[in-house]
Amino acid sequence: MSTEYLKKATKTAETNTEEAQKVVNEMLGTIQTGGEQAVRDYAKKLDNWDGGILLSEEEIDAIIKDVPQQVKEDIKFACKQVYDFAKAQLDSISDFSNTNNGVLAGQRVLPVNVAGCYVPTGRYAHIASAYMSIATAKAAGVPTVVACSTPYKGKSIHPYVLYAMKEAGADHIMTLGGVQAIASMAYGLFTGKKADIIVGPGNKFVAEAKRILFGEVGIDVFAGPSEVAVIADENADADVVAIDLVGQMEHGHESPGWLFTTSKVLAEEVMALIPQYIDELPPTAKDAAFCAWRDYGEVILCDTNDEVVKISDEYASEHLEVQCKDLDWWLDNLTCYGSLFLGEETNVTLGDKTSGPNHVLPTKAVARYSGGLSVHKFLKVLTWQKMTKESNRQIAQIASRISRLEGMEAHARCSDVRLHKYFPDETFDLGETVKE
Question: Are residues 205 and 232 in the same domain?
């Protein structure tokens, strides 16, 4: 088996990472020290926003009052699709208890108390990102959801994005973007509610802020620029493959599109079509897709389907489309992807906007060990246990002996004291007392 790069990227996901780390560390330090005023200063400097941060119900209603009815209906439909899928995920995990050797033990599945949801609005108004994060948190039962989005064209949050935030169930909404938004949710600025977890996509600075704050707060995934890979064989439609790659590369200058194929004919057709499709885009999308294809696009020709699987799993793409025959074989054999789109009919755009499964997904090969945003990200699986005096007869003896084998005498004595209390007339083998 062999692979051939018909087109290879000139840049990688790590390009300019050090710059982002330096900027974000400085900003977080300033905000931690300066609090809300530092956030206001960054909002003015970076987004030219000096208006209110935390929106009131009256302000929200005023901003969304002219949202067209069709837009409202579309957002409601998509929001319900996402909520229903997340609710089904919630139903797949439950509380339970069992008894084993006298130990009654179980688990409780509880939501976090506060979730911070970031909704980017930079090059585009990411309406779908609002309900992807907020509706999923609400399906998990999160009591308080704090949502942030960037000022749009000198005004507050884009009306359609704001409507989606409200429809999805956000409890507090702030006009804030970038690192200052992530920091404000993490530190509980403006709301007094510190986030337990922060979720949502964003640019490299947002991603870096989440990475640095991880530990102080939970995060969904470490996400970078959006990615798409298409696996296609000789049966695929080159036009469809090409536009699907371009469709994701319009996300930004650093959003790669990858084609993995066993057909050189298809690969060459796709490579010829992509520049044409990019050239037909409006200026903003054209600029982004052109740079993404030039710097990050790749086309890899493989001998066999097994080799395609190997390559695809190494890349672990955020979005992975399969346009091949025998889709079940691909479903059974592919293991590393953010979300899988099987068949020509199952386009990433449909998943990103409407179909139900979440579009906040791992990038930069994180799909090797993590899935994307789901209802489970907002849940804590907690365990509990309850023992009887009789269960201590066996459990405590073994715990004492293992503790002493580890050299932990105080641990052992916690078990010893119970055995002597509950069974005063009995003698037990408690192991050799730790001397040092």
Answer: no
Cα dist. 119→65, 200, 318, 328, 371 in Å? 20, 6, 18, 35, 19
DSSP string, 106-135: EEEEEE-SEEEEEE-BSSSB-HHHHHHHHH
Tokens of 292: 């993404």
Indicate the burial class of 83 (C-beta count within 10 angstroms; 0-12, 13-18, 19 or more). buried
CB environment 217-229: b (16+ within 10 A), e (fewer)? bbbbbebbbbbbb
57/191 same-domain check = yes
Same domain, 165 and 250: no
Residue 360 lies in a domain: yes
Give yes or no for a contact between 118 and 111, defined as CB atoms under 8 angstroms apart.
Answer: no
Domain span at residue 245?
Answer: 225-369
Look at the alpha carbons of 216, 169, 74, 88 in this order and tell me if their dihedral is positive or negative: positive
- Residues annotated catalytic, as ranges: 318-319
**Per-residue confidence (pLDDT) for residue 285, from 0 to 100:** 94
Strand partners, 229: 258, 320
Q: Are 151 and 51 in contact (CB under 8 A)?
A: yes
Q: How many domains does the chain have?
A: 3
pTM for the model stands at: 0.90
The stretches of 203-263 forming alpha helices (DSSP H) are 204-213, 238-249
**All residues at 6 or more sequence positions from 153 whose CB lies less than 8 Å from its CB, including other chains:** none
pLDDT in tens, 205-257: 999 999 999 999 999 987 778 999 999 999 999 999 999 999 999 999 999 99
pLDDT digits (tens, 9 = 90+) for 63-103: 999 999 999 999 999 999 999 999 999 999 999 999 999 99
SS3 317: coil
CB 341 within 8 A of CB 321: yes
Q: Are residues 229 and 210 in the same domain?
A: no
Residue 194 tokens read as 């510190």
pLDDT at position 204 over 90: no
Q: Identify whether residues 157 and 268 lie together within a single domain.
A: no
Strands 228-232, 218-219: pairing kind: unpaired
Predicted local distance difference test score (pLDDT) of residue 223: 74
Contact at 8 Å (CB) between 251 and 288? yes
Q: In the prediction, which pLDDT does 14 show?
A: 65
Give the end of a domain, one of 381, 407, 422. Answer: 381
- What type of residue is 415? S
CB under 8 Å, gap of 24 or more: what pairs does 430-434 form?
A: 430/397, 430/400, 430/401, 430/404, 431/400, 431/401, 431/403, 431/404, 431/405, 432/404, 433/404, 433/409, 434/404, 434/407, 434/408, 434/409
